[in-house]
Each structure stands twice: as C-alpha cells, then as structure tokens.
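Technical note accompanying the year-one report. For the benefit of new consortium partners, we illustrate the data format agreed upon in the data management plan: each record pairs a sequence with a structure-token string. No post-processing was applied to the example shown here.
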Amino acid sequence: MLSFLVALAPVLLTTFIVYLTLFKILAGLYRRKLFVFASAVIILAPFFVVFLAVSSMLELVWVLFLTPIYGLVVLSITNAIWMFRFYCSAFSVLFLLQFMFKSRNACSGKMNPVSYEVFWAKHLRRPSFKPGEKNKFGEFESKVDRRFGKLKKYGSLLSGLVLLFVLITTMVGSASPNLRNPTFLEAKMFVASDGTNQHPYLEKSYTCSNFAHDFRTNALEAGYYCGVVIIFNSNRDSHALNCFNTTDLGLVFLEPQTDNFVTVEVGKPYPVLNFSSLSSDQIVEGFFITW
C-alpha cells in the first residue's frame, strides 16, 4: 500500500501543478484579455462537460488524470464531428458578440477611435526620403491604414458569419434519413413502388450496374440499407444486382431489372435474362456485396 502511494504521489503532484497553472493562466487572461479568456474557456469546455458527467470516484480520478489537453485530444478522436460543430457554434457566437459590443460602444462614444497601423508598412520606411517622397508615402500608408481599419472593424462579424455558414453546411450535409434494415414485407412494398425496372436496358450506356446503382440510391432515400451485389463466373463475366439484410428473413437478393427476388448461391447457376453477360447455364463462382 505504501509503495502504491509513493508511486501515485508524483502523478497527483503533476496533475495538481497542471490544473493550478491552468487556473493561473485563465485568471490572468480574465483580468487582461477578456476575448482571449472566453476563447480559452470555449476550447476547454468539452473537457469540463466530460468532467461533470462522471458517475464514480474512480472515473473522476481517471478523468482528472487525463488533464484537459490530453482529454481534448481523446475527445477529438472519438467525437471529432461533435467537437467541430461545438467550436464552430461557440466561436461564431463569441465573434458576433464581440462585434455587437464594439459597435455599441463606438455608437455611445465610450470607445475612442483606434489608430490602425500596418506592421509591414511601418517597417518599409527608409531612413531618408527624396523631396516630396515622404508625403507621398505617408498618404499611401494612411490609405492602407484606413482600409485595414475597416477590415479589422468588421473582421469579427465576418468571422462569425463564416463559422455559422460552415456549421450549417456540415449539419445540412449530414441530414440524411436514419437508415435501417427493412422487414421482408417492407422490402417488397418498396420494390413495388420503385420504378427503376421501367428504365430500358441499353447496351454500353445503361446496363446492370446502372440499374443496381439507381435502385440502391432510391432505397437509401427511402431510409433503407441496400447493397449492390456483384456476381461473377469462371470466365470472370460479372453481373450486378441488389440485396437487403431484412430483419426477419436475413439477406435477400433482388434483380432490379425485373423486381424479382432471386437466389444467389456459389456453385449454382444464376437465372438471368439475355440482358446480362451471364448466361443461364453459367455457374456462379463467387460474389461480393458493397453497402
């Protein structure tokens, strides 16, 4: 027991120093740079969410031992999409609030006009100028300062809007229906309502692979998992069809060109029509499924 405590002491001391240092940094930022302090709190917020969700003392010790930085790394690996959306939404609100407070203070006269100075323009000054060159360069510098001043003034608004746009884009892009495996009856009802089989077979332009791809796309839009099956024979001729992993009958195969449920077995012929490269007397040597 004593040896365990001796081994644990350096870990606890290191953890204490890390959290004490973090607290000192946040306290200093709060007194001097409120915007940077708010940014730091946002960055660390996901870790504190995990910290507040612990349910036992052992889990609490483990979370504390991770320390905020390592905890954020773990969270970024396991919940990357959630963290990305959280940071986009939080920082967009922060930037918009910063712009609103700046605009309000400027309108009320509480904020003095800020003189914006461009770093690269400042250091491009030469020690001596020709007659009239100094005034010319000064006018150019003032013009650049004014333009960069407007950019800095509306930079927080632009940053907030860009982050909101990115957040909305990621959410809309993932707004696909919740996919699930259908029952066999649901699969039959979907097949009856789907019109992929009505498309004519066109050699070299709309073949079995096109039928299978379009049928799968329609099934996904309807909310069902659907696979594309590629079967081949000893001559490496291939044919594409579809399948469902039904909840009651398991894996069932479907010919999208005829809407018939078929049997696919290795070592047995596949009953295809003349629109396929496989003839009815050829034996299925193998198949694979892509979901």
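Partners are asked to follow this layout when depositing records. The first strand starts at residue 227 and ends at 232.
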